[in-house]
Design brief:
The protein has 390 residues and is an all-alpha fold. Pfam families: MFS_1. GO terms for molecular function: transmembrane transporter activity. Its main location: membrane.
């Protein structure tokens, strides 16, 4: 088996490990009389830890010029977190486990950069598409396993599966061979941090922040509430989630095809952000659970045609020895979106008593991202034409 195939398997297993227990964490803890505030703290720490650690891990990875050690640590700590959940299936146990899982997720950039380390700028998008597809395939597998097994076997099996897949990912990661890179000396931290002046990195980080924020505030939270308000059964909510996840995986593969690369990010990213805005409008205007299911494809399309393109475009002008630092900044910024957009949406929901305002706010956010993307690529095209004529 090729190294690329092994790495993609590790990525899928890693994200399966991180997500198989997620859909039922909140109901599991609430059933144990854990307060809603504490449950929010448990969930919040998973996102908060990477927000503060990714930039430091990025700097460290660029300093040593290696990513395999962080991949091994990521797989090991992902499995360890669920060992904690099995040993201490309480609110406090899950809190410490989510802190460990958050630290594990901080290593995600190293999985990406291990694969893209030797890729040229021309092949970067294709490589990013494969990585993101494998990531979301693992998440989809986790959602499917929890949807089909939790009711019969409970949280114990979810955490046991997490430990097993994390351990398998760890064993396979030990067989990976670090791509060689000739460097005269370790770069200075000040040199690595020079990426903060790259405007392209910041622009695509903001676009990624919008996409990830809307994804977290819809499919991962309030979209389910919309379905419940229409009388959806748990299996229908599960189909909604899996439809979104499957289309997310498919869009990642599509983004790596020759046709998608030929069309280019300008058209595809703008169009799919408009689809994301349409999704937000339709979610609060449809009156049938069965109508909500196919609509999930509109949101899922943003996985490869917005987020993987953002990741590739953000790194395309960054030297290889600085990419880990740049990706640390990129991922820290979209983590802010994953935190702030759901908070704002929740506030609008609380104030109005209806999800309409929350979803319309996100539709406007998606529209703003689409307009900004279109303007960016039109300006870039005119600049290139002007330079070619000069």
């Amino acid at each position: 088996m090729s190294q690329t195939a092994r790495l993609l398997i590790v990525i899928s297993l890693f994200w399966f490990t991180q997500y198989v227990y997620v859909p039922y964490t909140t109901p599991f803890l609430l059933a144990q009389k854990v307060s809603a505030d504490f449950v929010g703290l448990v969930v919040g720490f998973y996102g908060a830890v990477p927000l503060f650690t990714r930039i430091f891990i990025g700097l460290f990875s660029d300093k040593i010029g290696k990513f395999k050690p962080m991949i091994i640590v990521g797989c090991a700590t992902a499995a360890l977190a669920s060992v904690v959940r099995l040993t201490y299936p309480t609110g406090m146990g899950f809190l410490w486990a989510n802190i460990i899982s958050g630290f594990s997720s901080s290593m995600w950039m190293c999985f990406i950069l291990f694969h893209t380390k030797t890729l040229t700028k021309e092949n970067l998008q294709r490589g990013m598409g494969y990585v993101m597809a494998s990531c979301n395939l693992g998440i989809l597998g986790g959602f499917f396993a929890s949807a089909t097994l939790y009711e019969s076997y409970g949280m114990f099996l979810m955490c046991l599966l997490s430990v097993c897949t994390g351990s398998i990912a760890l064993l396979i990661s030990l067989t990976l061979k670090e791509p060689t890179e000739h460097r005269l000396q370790s770069p200075k931290v000040s040199d690595l941090l020079h990426v903060v002046f790259n405007k392209r990195l910041w622009f695509f980080a903001v676009i990624g922040m919008i996409q990830q924020g809307i994804l977290m505030a819809t499919a991962m939270s309030f979209s389910n509430e919309v379905a419940h308000s229409l009388g959806a059964q748990p299996w229908q909510v599960g189909i909604m989630t899996m439809t979104m996840s499957a289309s997310y995986v498919a869009s990642c593969y599509i983004s790596s095809t020759h046709l998608a690369i030929r069309i280019g990010p300008g058209i595809l990213m703008t169009a799919t952000q408009l689809c994301m805005g349409l999704y937000c409008v339709l979610m609060v205007n449809l009156d049938s659970v069965y109508a909500l299911i196919p609509v999930q494809i509109l949101l899922g399309s943003t996985g490869g045609l917005v987020f993987s393109w953002c990741s590739a475009e953000a790194l395309s002008q960054i030297e290889s020895y600085r990419r880990s630092t740049a990706l640390g900044i990129f991922q820290s910024l979209f983590a802010i979106g994953m935190t702030m957009v759901p908070i704002i949406a929740g506030y609008l929901f609380e104030q109005s008593g209806t999800l309409t305002n929350a979803f319309y706010f996100q539709a406007l956010l998606a529209l703003a991202g689409a307009i900004a993307t279109a303007v960016y690529y039109i300006h870039r095209r005119h600049t290139r034409l002007r330079d070619a004529q000069a």
